[in-house]
Amino acid sequence: MKKLCLVASILPMFGCSHFNDDTPSSSPKKNKPASSYSVVEEPKTTSYSINDLTNQVINPKNTEYKNTTVNTTAKKNSAMLNVILIRQNPELRYGCEVTSLAMVLNYAGVKTNKMELYRQVQKDPDPLIKSPKGDILRWGNPADGFVGDMSGRRAGYAVFDKPMIALINQKLPGRAVNLTSLPFERVLEHVSAGYPVVVWTTGDYRIPDRWEGWYHGNQYIKTPLDLHAVVLVGYDTNHVYLNDPLSGRKQVRVNKQQFITSWKALQNRAVSYR
Predict the structure, then answer these.
(1) How far apart are CA 232 and CA 193, in angstroms?
(2) pLDDT value of position 74
(3) At the N or C end, where does the chain have fewer CB atoms within 10 A?
(4) Which value, in Å, is the radius of gyration of the alpha carbons in the chain?
(5) In angstroms, rounded to a whole number, what is the distance separating the alpha carbons of residues 41 and 20?
(6) In a 10 Å sphere around its CB, with 0-12 CB exposed, 13-18 middle and 19+ buried, how is residue 85 labelled?
(7) What is the pLDDT of residues 157-187, one digit of tens each?
(8) Contact between 178 and 165 (Cβ < 8 Å)
(9) Quick one: average pLDDT of 61-84?
(10) Total-model pTM
Protein backbone atom coordinates (compact mmCIF):
# COMPACT_ATOMS: atom_id res chain seq x y z
CA MET A 1 0.00 0.00 0.00
CA LYS A 2 1.40 3.33 -1.02
CA LYS A 3 2.13 5.40 2.06
CA LEU A 4 1.54 9.10 2.43
CA CYS A 5 3.92 11.75 3.73
CA LEU A 6 4.70 11.53 7.43
CA VAL A 7 3.70 13.89 10.21
CA ALA A 8 6.78 14.52 12.36
CA SER A 9 8.37 11.69 10.33
CA ILE A 10 6.27 9.19 12.27
CA LEU A 11 2.59 9.40 11.40
CA PRO A 12 0.97 9.13 7.99
CA MET A 13 -1.00 12.15 6.86
CA PHE A 14 -4.70 11.72 7.39
CA GLY A 15 -7.82 13.38 6.13
CA CYS A 16 -7.80 16.18 3.63
CA SER A 17 -4.08 16.87 4.04
CA HIS A 18 -3.16 13.91 1.86
CA PHE A 19 -3.62 16.11 -1.21
CA ASN A 20 -0.85 15.94 -3.80
CA ASP A 21 0.22 19.28 -5.25
CA ASP A 22 0.57 17.52 -8.60
CA THR A 23 -3.19 17.66 -9.04
CA PRO A 24 -3.56 19.38 -12.41
CA SER A 25 -4.62 23.01 -12.66
CA SER A 26 -5.61 24.84 -15.79
CA SER A 27 -2.01 24.55 -16.99
CA PRO A 28 -0.91 20.95 -17.57
CA LYS A 29 2.30 19.81 -15.91
CA LYS A 30 4.99 18.06 -17.89
CA ASN A 31 6.17 14.54 -17.12
CA LYS A 32 3.40 13.97 -14.57
CA PRO A 33 3.80 10.50 -13.03
CA ALA A 34 1.07 8.05 -13.86
CA SER A 35 0.45 7.47 -10.16
CA SER A 36 -0.32 11.13 -9.39
CA TYR A 37 -3.82 12.21 -8.56
CA SER A 38 -5.88 13.69 -11.37
CA VAL A 39 -9.38 14.95 -11.95
CA VAL A 40 -10.76 13.06 -14.91
CA GLU A 41 -14.15 13.02 -16.47
CA GLU A 42 -14.70 9.32 -16.94
CA PRO A 43 -15.26 6.83 -14.09
CA LYS A 44 -12.25 4.74 -13.14
CA THR A 45 -12.54 0.97 -13.36
CA THR A 46 -12.04 -0.56 -9.90
CA SER A 47 -12.17 -4.00 -8.36
CA TYR A 48 -13.95 -2.68 -5.27
CA SER A 49 -17.72 -2.63 -4.98
CA ILE A 50 -19.58 0.24 -3.33
CA ASN A 51 -21.17 -2.09 -0.79
CA ASP A 52 -17.81 -3.61 0.17
CA LEU A 53 -16.26 -0.19 0.77
CA THR A 54 -19.28 1.44 2.37
CA ASN A 55 -19.51 -1.34 4.93
CA GLN A 56 -15.91 -0.64 5.97
CA VAL A 57 -16.35 3.07 6.55
CA ILE A 58 -17.16 4.09 10.12
CA ASN A 59 -20.81 3.72 11.13
CA PRO A 60 -20.90 4.22 14.89
CA LYS A 61 -23.29 2.09 16.89
CA ASN A 62 -26.36 3.81 18.29
CA THR A 63 -25.92 6.66 15.81
CA GLU A 64 -29.10 7.77 14.11
CA TYR A 65 -29.25 10.15 11.23
CA LYS A 66 -32.36 12.30 11.37
CA ASN A 67 -32.47 14.08 8.06
CA THR A 68 -34.41 17.30 7.95
CA THR A 69 -37.10 17.35 5.28
CA VAL A 70 -36.07 19.71 2.53
CA ASN A 71 -38.79 21.46 0.55
CA THR A 72 -37.58 22.15 -2.96
CA THR A 73 -39.06 23.04 -6.29
CA ALA A 74 -38.39 20.94 -9.38
CA LYS A 75 -34.68 20.42 -9.88
CA LYS A 76 -33.17 22.49 -12.66
CA ASN A 77 -31.19 20.80 -15.43
CA SER A 78 -28.11 22.68 -14.29
CA ALA A 79 -27.09 25.14 -11.59
CA MET A 80 -24.03 27.12 -10.54
CA LEU A 81 -23.63 29.08 -7.31
CA ASN A 82 -20.96 31.77 -7.04
CA VAL A 83 -19.57 30.69 -3.67
CA ILE A 84 -16.43 32.40 -2.39
CA LEU A 85 -13.31 30.22 -2.42
CA ILE A 86 -11.42 29.91 0.88
CA ARG A 87 -8.15 27.99 1.20
CA GLN A 88 -7.47 25.89 4.29
CA ASN A 89 -3.68 26.25 4.16
CA PRO A 90 -1.41 27.31 5.66
CA GLU A 91 -3.27 27.58 8.96
CA LEU A 92 -5.44 24.45 8.84
CA ARG A 93 -3.57 21.56 7.31
CA TYR A 94 -6.39 19.17 8.25
CA GLY A 95 -9.20 21.72 8.16
CA CYS A 96 -11.04 20.93 4.93
CA GLU A 97 -14.39 20.48 6.72
CA VAL A 98 -14.49 23.79 8.60
CA THR A 99 -12.98 25.67 5.65
CA SER A 100 -15.66 24.26 3.36
CA LEU A 101 -18.27 25.23 5.91
CA ALA A 102 -16.85 28.76 6.06
CA MET A 103 -17.51 29.07 2.32
CA VAL A 104 -21.09 27.87 2.74
CA LEU A 105 -21.84 30.12 5.71
CA ASN A 106 -20.38 33.17 3.99
CA TYR A 107 -22.67 32.47 1.04
CA ALA A 108 -25.55 32.41 3.54
CA GLY A 109 -24.54 35.88 4.75
CA VAL A 110 -22.88 34.81 8.00
CA LYS A 111 -19.80 36.80 8.94
CA THR A 112 -17.39 34.08 9.98
CA ASN A 113 -14.12 32.52 8.88
CA LYS A 114 -12.31 29.20 9.00
CA MET A 115 -10.36 30.05 12.16
CA GLU A 116 -13.48 30.92 14.12
CA LEU A 117 -15.11 27.65 13.02
CA TYR A 118 -11.89 25.79 13.87
CA ARG A 119 -12.15 27.07 17.43
CA GLN A 120 -15.87 26.39 17.75
CA VAL A 121 -16.34 22.95 16.18
CA GLN A 122 -16.66 20.06 18.62
CA LYS A 123 -13.43 18.14 19.21
CA ASP A 124 -12.96 14.53 20.26
CA PRO A 125 -10.28 14.74 22.98
CA ASP A 126 -9.17 11.10 22.86
CA PRO A 127 -5.38 11.07 22.41
CA LEU A 128 -3.54 9.24 19.69
CA ILE A 129 -1.97 6.02 21.02
CA LYS A 130 0.52 4.13 18.87
CA SER A 131 2.28 0.80 19.04
CA PRO A 132 6.09 0.66 19.33
CA LYS A 133 6.10 0.13 15.55
CA GLY A 134 4.15 3.33 15.00
CA ASP A 135 0.79 1.74 14.15
CA ILE A 136 -2.29 3.56 15.41
CA LEU A 137 -3.95 1.62 18.22
CA ARG A 138 -6.47 4.08 19.64
CA TRP A 139 -7.79 7.49 18.67
CA GLY A 140 -10.97 9.57 18.54
CA ASN A 141 -14.28 9.23 16.72
CA PRO A 142 -14.95 11.79 13.94
CA ALA A 143 -18.67 11.24 14.44
CA ASP A 144 -18.28 12.88 17.87
CA GLY A 145 -15.89 15.71 16.99
CA PHE A 146 -12.72 16.56 15.12
CA VAL A 147 -10.05 13.92 15.72
CA GLY A 148 -6.50 15.12 16.33
CA ASP A 149 -4.97 18.52 15.65
CA MET A 150 -6.53 20.43 12.76
CA SER A 151 -3.58 22.82 12.51
CA GLY A 152 -1.14 20.06 11.54
CA ARG A 153 1.28 20.67 14.39
CA ARG A 154 0.32 17.16 15.45
CA ALA A 155 -1.50 14.39 13.60
CA GLY A 156 -5.07 15.20 12.63
CA TYR A 157 -7.84 13.43 10.81
CA ALA A 158 -11.43 14.60 10.26
CA VAL A 159 -14.88 15.44 11.58
CA PHE A 160 -18.17 14.05 10.26
CA ASP A 161 -21.65 15.47 9.77
CA LYS A 162 -23.22 15.71 13.25
CA PRO A 163 -20.68 18.13 14.79
CA MET A 164 -20.90 20.16 11.56
CA ILE A 165 -24.69 20.31 11.84
CA ALA A 166 -24.34 21.56 15.42
CA LEU A 167 -21.95 24.27 14.21
CA ILE A 168 -24.32 25.37 11.43
CA ASN A 169 -27.11 25.68 13.99
CA GLN A 170 -24.88 27.91 16.12
CA LYS A 171 -24.53 30.30 13.20
CA LEU A 172 -27.97 29.83 11.65
CA PRO A 173 -30.24 28.67 14.49
CA GLY A 174 -32.68 26.02 13.37
CA ARG A 175 -31.60 26.19 9.74
CA ALA A 176 -29.10 23.32 9.51
CA VAL A 177 -29.98 20.58 7.04
CA ASN A 178 -28.38 17.14 7.28
CA LEU A 179 -28.52 15.54 3.85
CA THR A 180 -26.43 12.57 4.96
CA SER A 181 -27.72 9.18 3.76
CA LEU A 182 -30.13 10.76 1.26
CA PRO A 183 -29.90 9.99 -2.47
CA PHE A 184 -27.53 12.24 -4.39
CA GLU A 185 -30.47 13.60 -6.37
CA ARG A 186 -31.74 15.16 -3.14
CA VAL A 187 -28.38 16.84 -2.67
CA LEU A 188 -28.57 18.22 -6.21
CA GLU A 189 -32.11 19.45 -5.53
CA HIS A 190 -30.73 21.41 -2.58
CA VAL A 191 -28.10 23.04 -4.81
CA SER A 192 -30.78 23.70 -7.44
CA ALA A 193 -32.79 25.55 -4.77
CA GLY A 194 -29.80 27.86 -4.18
CA TYR A 195 -27.91 26.27 -1.26
CA PRO A 196 -24.28 25.06 -1.52
CA VAL A 197 -23.51 21.81 0.27
CA VAL A 198 -20.46 20.50 2.15
CA VAL A 199 -19.85 16.97 0.86
CA TRP A 200 -17.34 14.30 1.92
CA THR A 201 -15.27 12.64 -0.78
CA THR A 202 -11.59 11.87 -1.43
CA GLY A 203 -8.77 14.09 -2.61
CA ASP A 204 -8.97 12.85 -6.19
CA TYR A 205 -12.76 12.30 -6.10
CA ARG A 206 -12.37 8.54 -6.62
CA ILE A 207 -13.11 5.46 -4.54
CA PRO A 208 -10.64 5.36 -1.61
CA ASP A 209 -7.97 2.67 -1.78
CA ARG A 210 -5.91 3.41 1.35
CA TRP A 211 -7.36 2.55 4.73
CA GLU A 212 -6.45 2.90 8.39
CA GLY A 213 -8.12 1.62 11.54
CA TRP A 214 -8.04 2.09 15.31
CA TYR A 215 -10.10 1.48 18.42
CA HIS A 216 -12.28 4.10 20.06
CA GLY A 217 -13.45 2.54 23.30
CA ASN A 218 -14.74 -0.88 22.26
CA GLN A 219 -15.52 0.24 18.73
CA TYR A 220 -13.16 -0.41 15.84
CA ILE A 221 -13.08 2.42 13.31
CA LYS A 222 -11.91 1.66 9.79
CA THR A 223 -11.74 4.66 7.50
CA PRO A 224 -9.90 5.84 4.37
CA LEU A 225 -6.70 7.83 4.71
CA ASP A 226 -7.53 10.18 1.86
CA LEU A 227 -10.83 11.52 3.15
CA HIS A 228 -11.62 15.06 2.02
CA ALA A 229 -14.45 17.61 2.21
CA VAL A 230 -15.37 20.12 -0.48
CA VAL A 231 -18.28 22.41 -1.39
CA LEU A 232 -20.74 21.29 -4.04
CA VAL A 233 -21.56 24.53 -5.88
CA GLY A 234 -23.07 23.34 -9.15
CA TYR A 235 -23.91 20.58 -11.58
CA ASP A 236 -25.04 19.88 -15.12
CA THR A 237 -26.03 16.72 -16.96
CA ASN A 238 -22.66 14.97 -16.72
CA HIS A 239 -20.65 16.91 -14.14
CA VAL A 240 -20.57 18.37 -10.67
CA TYR A 241 -18.67 21.54 -9.75
CA LEU A 242 -16.72 21.84 -6.51
CA ASN A 243 -14.90 24.50 -4.50
CA ASP A 244 -11.87 22.66 -3.14
CA PRO A 245 -10.27 24.26 -0.05
CA LEU A 246 -7.06 22.26 -0.37
CA SER A 247 -6.21 22.62 -4.05
CA GLY A 248 -7.47 26.21 -3.91
CA ARG A 249 -9.54 25.74 -7.05
CA LYS A 250 -13.01 27.15 -7.64
CA GLN A 251 -15.80 25.36 -9.52
CA VAL A 252 -13.65 22.31 -10.30
CA ARG A 253 -15.47 20.19 -12.89
CA VAL A 254 -15.66 16.48 -12.07
CA ASN A 255 -17.48 13.63 -13.78
CA LYS A 256 -20.76 13.25 -11.90
CA GLN A 257 -20.85 9.46 -11.74
CA GLN A 258 -17.21 9.29 -10.64
CA PHE A 259 -17.90 11.76 -7.86
CA ILE A 260 -21.04 9.96 -6.70
CA THR A 261 -19.01 6.76 -6.41
CA SER A 262 -16.51 8.40 -4.05
CA TRP A 263 -19.28 10.16 -2.11
CA LYS A 264 -21.15 6.89 -1.53
CA ALA A 265 -17.95 5.23 -0.33
CA LEU A 266 -17.82 7.92 2.37
CA GLN A 267 -21.40 7.01 3.41
CA ASN A 268 -23.26 9.77 1.58
CA ARG A 269 -22.26 12.54 3.98
CA ALA A 270 -23.52 16.03 3.18
CA VAL A 271 -24.59 19.07 5.24
CA SER A 272 -26.02 22.48 4.41
CA TYR A 273 -28.63 25.01 5.55
CA ARG A 274 -31.95 26.39 4.34
Answers:
(1) 13
(2) 86
(3) N
(4) 18
(5) 19
(6) middle
(7) 999 999 999 999 999 999 999 999 999 999 9
(8) yes
(9) 70
(10) 0.77
Q: Pinpoint the alpha helices (H) of the chain.
A: 50-56, 96-107, 114-120, 161-171, 184-192, 256-265
User: DSSP state, 91?
Assistant: T
Give the closest residue to 124 by CA, choosing from 100, 98, 150, 87. 150
**Which residues neighbour 112 within 8 Å (Cβ) at sequence distance 6 or greater?**
102, 105, 106, 171
Q: How confident is the model at residue 20 (pLDDT cuts 50, 70, 90)?
A: very low
Q: How far apart are CA 139 and CA 6, in angstroms?
A: 17
Name the CA dihedral angle for 216, 221, 227, 230, rounded to a multiple of 10 degrees: -70
The pLDDT value given to residue 3: 35
State the Cα torsion 91-96-100-102 to the nearest 10°: -30
Amino acid at 11: L
Length of the chain: 274
> Under 8 Å CB-to-CB from 217, ≥6 apart: which residues?
none
Compute CA 1 distance to the chain's CA centroid, rounded to the nearest angstrom. Answer: 22
